[in-house]
Design brief:
single chain; about 270 residues; alpha/beta; UDP-N-acetylmuramoyl-L-alanine:D-glutamate ligase; two-stranded antiparallel ribbon; globular
Length: about 270
Amino acid sequence: MSRIVTVQDISCVGQCSLTVALPIISAFGVETAIVPSAVLSTHTGGFKGFTFRDLTDDIPAIVRHWQQEKIDFDAIYTGYLGDAKQIEYIGEMIATLLKKGGKVIVDPAMADYGKLYTGFDKDFVREMVKLVAQADYVLPNLSEATFLLDEPFVESGYDEKYIEGICRKLCALGAKNVVLTGVSFDPEKVGVAVYDGHKTEYYFRTREKRNSHGTGDIYASAFTGAFVNGKTALEAASFAADVTVEAIRATNDDPSHWYGVKFEKVIPYITKNL
Ligand code: PXL
């Protein structure tokens, strides 16, 4: 039985981050502890006037308590962080709360479509590079990858050599493996590149028409659940892509649901197919 901890925000409404990670990873039969990085009334991707409570100062005491209680974890999975200072505290979690052989999974949730999310800047990106350096698996989308590498975002028209170069450079930052999302060599298809430091493997699905918010969190959560459950990185990356496609399809007929995807509809898909 595995126990993991995930560090990301609670967006009270918006179907992203912890409200997605907790149910999805639990659906894989994996005990999921949480460290909320911040509490927001909604996510920042389209709502106006959201509240934001930064929980950075709560993290050291939580970590200290767990150290005293000898609570440890098979994996630490990080997502959207409330402040760059949290990266230092996550370093401490890795050093003291991760079991021997445990894995660090980093989703550098900070950008999409070539733009940083509201509230993040280049200083935050520079700190995120330090967290990526400690990752066994880093799961950026193409926008996040290019921010981490301080390169211009290339939307389309690239080839395998370009993608493999991005993966190689992310490993040069210190990450051991890369799962790069949003890779597309053909406008009809989109998928992931999985790089282990030597070879790159791909998995593609037919592109869904609509761009959806929160799919990165569904993807990273499903990857984490499947991987901790014993699947290989390529199997977990492929299964997570299937779960994400199912969640988008479950939402396609409801244009009023612009702020996220109905991941709860795919919980049975996860339990049936894992
Ligand atoms: O889905 C990533 C995410 C998580 N948390 C918050 C966000 C976003 C993306 O915009 O705003 C608060």
